[in-house]
C-alpha cells in the first residue's frame, strides 16, 4: 500500500514537472521554431508563459517598487547583453538595453516602424502620431512643427502659462490644509494645455475637472492589457476616449462654422493654427487628425509636465545646495530685467541654463515612460543578433538613463553632471529620438521652466510624508501624490 502511494506521488510529481516544462516552452515553440536557422542568432531570453508571456514578471517588478529588477532578472540568467527576447503586451519582443543600440533602432525608419501595443493605438487614435506610418508621421510633424515648436508659437504661449502658474501657486499657498501637490499639478498642467490649444473655449472649472478626470482614465488604460470588459482599466479608458472625441469633435466643427477667413486668424490658439496649416500640396489636417492630435497633446501635457514639475520640486527640496543655486539663477534674471518688462519673455527663459540642467536631470531620473515601442519591418541584424520581422522592439529608457557607463552614480540627482561635455549623444531620451521625437518636447520644457521659475522665487514645499514610497505604474509618482503644503517665502 505504501509502495503504491509512493509510486503515485512520484508519478504526480513527474507529471507536474513535465507540465511545467511544457508550459514554459510553449511560447518558444510557437514563435521561435518557425524561424528556422534564424533562431540561432536571436538575443538571449525567454518568452515566458502561454498568453501572458513575461507580463507577470513585468507587473511584479513595477508594482512592488523595484522596476529595474525586471531587466536585471534577464541579466542574471543570461548574462550582460545589448538586448533580450521576451513576450510583452501580447507580442514577441526584443528589449533593447544600451544607448547605442537604442539609437540604432530609433533612428532607422527604413527598418523599424511604430510598434505600440493595441491599448495605446486604440486610445490615442489611429490618425494621431503614435500609430501612423513613418511617411504619414513625417507629414504630420511638418504640419504641426510651426504651431507647436517654433519660437514664435512658444513665445505666444508664455503668457498663458505664466498667468496660470502665478494664480495656481497663490491659490495653493492660501489652502488651510495639505494638498496632493501632484494631483493639483496634473490638473493645472491640463488647464495650461487646454488654454494653449483652445483659448477660452472651455474655461469653467467643472468642465475642466470632468475632462481632466477623463484623461486620467485614458492615461491609466495606456499601460494596461487590452481587455475590454467592465472593471478593467482599458474598458474605462475606451469610454473616456469616446467621450473626449465627441467633445473635441464638436468644438472643431463649431470653430469651423463660426470663424471664416480673417475672423479665424484673430484667434491665437493651437487649434486655429492647426486648422490653417497646409502641406506643400495644399492639403490641410482633417477634423479626425486634429481631434487625435488634441488628445495626444493634452495627454502629453497632462502627464509629462505635471509630473516633471512635481518631481523637480521634490528633488530640489531634498538637495538644498542645488535649490540655492537654482534660486540664485532666477534671482539674477529678475535683477537684470528692464523696468518696462512685466513678465517673462523667451530670451529670459533661454538664459535659465542651470534650470534646464535641473529639468534634464529630473527627466532622466524619473523616467516618465519606461520604454518606447517600435516594430521590425524586416529581419534586422544588430550587434550579431537577429530581430525577426514583425517582432516588437522596445528601447528600454530606464536602462539607458541608469547605465553607469553613461552616468556616474546614476541614481543621484546631480544637475551639474550636464556640465560634462563627455556625456554621449543619445543617452538622454525622455521624449524619444529620431524622426519620431515628441514634437511637444520644447513646449513641455517651457511649461516646466515657467512653473519652476515662480516656485523658486516665491515658494517652498513642505511634504507631509517625506521619503514616502514611490509607485511606478501607470507612471512614476509618490504613493501619497506628494501630500504637502505650499508656503510663501
From TrEMBL:
Sequence positions that bind heme: 438
Keywords: Heme, Iron, Membrane, Metal-binding, Monooxygenase, Oxidoreductase, Transmembrane, Transmembrane helix
Places the protein is found: Membrane
Family annotation (Gene3D superfamilies): Cytochrome P450
GO CC, any one term: membrane
Molecular functions per Gene Ontology: metal ion binding; monooxygenase activity
Cofactor: heme
Listed name of the protein: Ent-kaurenoic acid oxidase
Amino acid at each position: 500500500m505504501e509502495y503504491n502511494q509512493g509510486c503515485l506521488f512520484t508519478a504526480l510529481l513527474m507529471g507536474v514537472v513535465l507540465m511545467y516544462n511544457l508550459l514554459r516552452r510553449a511560447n518558444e515553440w510557437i514563435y521561435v521554431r518557425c524561424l528556422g536557422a534564424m533562431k540561432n542568432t536571436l538575443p538571449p531570453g525567454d518568452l515566458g508563459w502561454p498568453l501572458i508571456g513575461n507580463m507577470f514578471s513585468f507587473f511584479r517588478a513595477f508594482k512592488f517598487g523595484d522596476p529595474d529588477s525586471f531587466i536585471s532578472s534577464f541579466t542574471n540568467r543570461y548574462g550582460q547583453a545589448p538586448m533580450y527576447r521576451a513576450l510583452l503586451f501580447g507580442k514577441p519582443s526584443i528589449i533593447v538595453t544600451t544607448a547605442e543600440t537604442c539609437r540604432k533602432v530609433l533612428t532607422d525608419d527604413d527598418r523599424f516602424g511604430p510598434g505600440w501595443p493595441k491599448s495605446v493605438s486604440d486610445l490615442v487614435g489611429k490618425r494621431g502620431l503614435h500609430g501612423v506610418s513613418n511617411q504619414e508621421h513625417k507629414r504630420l510633424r511638418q504640419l504641426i512643427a510651426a504651431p507647436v515648436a517654433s519660437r514664435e508659437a512658444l513665445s505666444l504661449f508664455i503668457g498663458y502659462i505664466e498667468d496660470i502658474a502665478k494664480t495656481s501657486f497663490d491659490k495653493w499657498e492660501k489652502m488651510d490644509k495639505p494638498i496632493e501637490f501632484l494631483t493639483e499639478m496634473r490638473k493645472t498642467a491640463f488647464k495650461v494645455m487646454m488654454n494653449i490649444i483652445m483659448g477660452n473655449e472651455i474655461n469653467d472649472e467643472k468642465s475642466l475637472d470632468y475632462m481632466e478626470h477623463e484623461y486620467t482614465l485614458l492615461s491609466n488604460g495606456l499601460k494596461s492589457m487590452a481587455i475590454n470588459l467592465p472593471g478593467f482599466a482599458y474598458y474605462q479608458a475606451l469610454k473616456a476616449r469616446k467621450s473626449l472625441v465627441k467633445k473635441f469633435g464638436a468644438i472643431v466643427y463649431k470653430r469651423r462654422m463660426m470663424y471664416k477667413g480673417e475672423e479665424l486668424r484673430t484667434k491665437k490658439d493651437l487649434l486655429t493654427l492647426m486648422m490653417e496649416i497646409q502641406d506643400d500640396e495644399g492639403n490641410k489636417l482633417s477634423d479626425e487628425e486634429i481631434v487625435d492630435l488634441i488628445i495626444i497633446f493634452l495627454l502629453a501635457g497632462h502627464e509629462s509636465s505635471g509630473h516633471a514639475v512635481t518631481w523637480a520640486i521634490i528633488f530640489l527640496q531634498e538637495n538644498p545646495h542645488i535649490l540655492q543655486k537654482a534660486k540664485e539663477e532666477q534671482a539674477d534674471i529678475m535683477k537684470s530685467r528692464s523696468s518696462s518688462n512685466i513678465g517673462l519673455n523667451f530670451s529670459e527663459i533661454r538664459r535659465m541654463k542651470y534650470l534646464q540642467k535641473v529639468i534634464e536631470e529630473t527627466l532622466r531620473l524619473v523616467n516618465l515612460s519606461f520604454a518606447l515601442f517600435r516594430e521590425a519591418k524586416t529581419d534586422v541584424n544588430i550587434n550579431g543578433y537577429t530581430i525577426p520581422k514583425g517582432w516588437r522592439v522596445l528601447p528600454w529608457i530606464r536602462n539607458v538613463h541608469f547605465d553607469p557607463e553613461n552616468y556616474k552614480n546614476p541614481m543621484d540627482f546631480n544637475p551639474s553632471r550636464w556640465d560634462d561635455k563627455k556625456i554621449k549623444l543619445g543617452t538622454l531620451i525622455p521624449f524619444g529620438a529620431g524622426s519620431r521625437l515628441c514634437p511637444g518636447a520644447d513646449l513641455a520644457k517651457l511649461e516646466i521652466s515657467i512653473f519652476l521659475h515662480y516656485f523658486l522665487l516665491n515658494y517652498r514645499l513642505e511634504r507631509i510624508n517625506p521619503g514616502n514610497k514611490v509607485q511606478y505604474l501607470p507612471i512614476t509618482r509618490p504613493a501619497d501624490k506628494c501630500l504637502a503644503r505650499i508656503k510663501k517665502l
